[in-house]
Specification:
- This protein is of the alpha/beta class.
- It folds into two domains: about 5-125 and about 305-335, Quinone Oxidoreductase, Chain A, domain 1 (Alpha-Beta Complex), CATH 3.90.180.10; about 135-280, NAD(P)-binding Rossmann-like Domain (Rossmann fold), CATH 3.40.50.
- The protein is built from nine helices and 15 strands.
- Strands 3, 4, 5, 6, 7, 14 and 15 form a seven-stranded mixed beta sheet that branches.
- Helix 2 crosses helix 8 and helix 5 (about 205-215) packs parallel to helix 6 (about 230-235).
- The protein binds NADP nicotinamide-adenine-dinucleotide phosphate.
């Protein structure tokens, strides 16, 4: 089989103002570089689009460097090794790495992880067994210090992290898990997955919906969305309640500063803890989660959905649609 000499990638054509549009992206065809010593050539089979990428499209300092204008985007991907100049990675191996948004990648073997796709799909390493799964586990355990018997509320409940957070909370002994999501179909799905109650956050004030679902209050809030949800959760939290501040997707496209929760002072009297985190700050928990998740998957206690788009050309729209809520479970682009 002859090896490809050219490939296609998606470059950032413009920094989005508010919600991204197709004009912010550009499909380009480029020469593939020759393999250097220790490098491999990978044909990507699946790539991830994730909400954090929206922040990287702004030219601001953050925990991760912004994307460069007119350069290819990057992100999680899994692919098949077509050529290798490394003793550590063989042709035919499947690898997880960080050069998504392109059909082929040339990179040092030291920057990939060989994965086993004999019993799970390649895309599982971008979802339930990958970064979103670990995020759900870290947020509940190390950040929110969830205990058996806690009442747990998860926003973004039908998304990649949220689906897993709800099920893991149950597996860890939550007495009740409540979720919120954008549509009735998503709410129905999270109830099937084991959430005890869920509501469509667009149907009314979040504070009222949460109050109806948890009249006695909540102990843990896993925050994927920020804004009105965070304010509602602060009102619902009981004494010594804890918030895992995972994401604030309701604010990622904001073009002006967004107000903080108006009831933050309640944290004083209730002794609340609001703790932010980035999954990469807890590297030791990744292996622990994967081992436990493998067990939960085998027992049928953990299920995850994927919304799959086909082809690199579809990647920009997949990302745009992710931010607008088109996905149930992990949004994946199959290449
Ligand atoms: P996701 O939930 O699969 O997809 C994003 C979802 O956000 C959409 O499907 C949409 O669902 C919801 N959404 C969009 N606008 C919203 C709004 N204004 N209010 C409420 N919900 C809105 O994405 P994910 O990968 O699992 O990420 C979820 C959150 O976790 C994001 O905030 C992300 O940045 C964060 N995250 C953090 C870390 C970390 O290390 N801290 C790691 C991974 C992810 P609806 O239809 O329900 O609106």
């Amino acid at each position: 089989m002859s090896l490809p000499t050219r490939t296609r990638h998606i470059a950032l054509a413009a920094r989005p103002q508010g919600a991204p549009t197709p004009a912010d992206f550009r499909l380009e065809e480029v020469e593939l570089p020759e393999l250097g010593d220790g490098e491999i050539l990978v044909r990507n089979t699946v790539m991830s689009v994730d909400p954090y990428m929206r922040g990287r499209m702004n030219d601001v300092k953050s925990y991760v460097a912004p994307f460069a204008l007119d350069a290819p985007l990057d992100g999680g991907a899994v692919g098949e090794v077509l050529a290798s100049r490394s003793p550590d990675v063989a042709v035919g191996d499947r690898v997880l790495h960080g050069l998504g948004w392109r059909e082929h990648a040339v990179l040092p073997a030291s920057r990939v992880t060989v994965v086993d796709i004999s019993s799970v799909s390649d895309s599982a390493y971008l979802g339930v067994l990958g970064m979103p799964g670990v995020t759900a586990y870290v947020g509940l355990t190390a950040v929110a210090e969830m205990r058996e018997g806690d009442v747990v509320f998860v926003s973004g409940a039908a998304g990649a992290v949220g689906q897993i957070a709800g099920q893991v909370a149950k597996a860890l002994g939550a007495s009740r898990v409540i979720g919120s999501a954008g549509t009735a179909d998503k709410v129905a799905r999270v109830l099937e997955l084991g959430y005890d109650d869920a509501f469509v956050y667009k149907d009314g004030p979040v504070r009222e919906s949460l109050q109806a679902a948890a009249p006695e209050g909540i102990d843990v809030y896993f925050d994927n969305v920020g804004g009105e949800h965070l304010e509602a959760a602060i009102s619902a939290l009981r004494l010594h309640g804890r918030v895992a501040m995972c994401g604030a997707i309701s604010q990622y496209n904001a073009t002006e500063a967004t107000p903080g929760p108006r009831n933050l002072f309640q944290a004083i009297g209730k002794g609340l803890t609001l703790r932010g985190f980035i999954v990469g700050q807890y590297p030791d928990l990744a292996a622990e989660y994967r081992e436990r998740a493998a067990g939960w998957l085998a027992e049928g206690r953990l299920t995850s959905d994927e919304t799959v788009r086909e082809g690199l050309d579809a990647a920009p729209q997949a990302f745009i649609d992710l931010l607008a809520g088109a996905n149930t479970g992990k949004m994946i682009v199959r290449l």
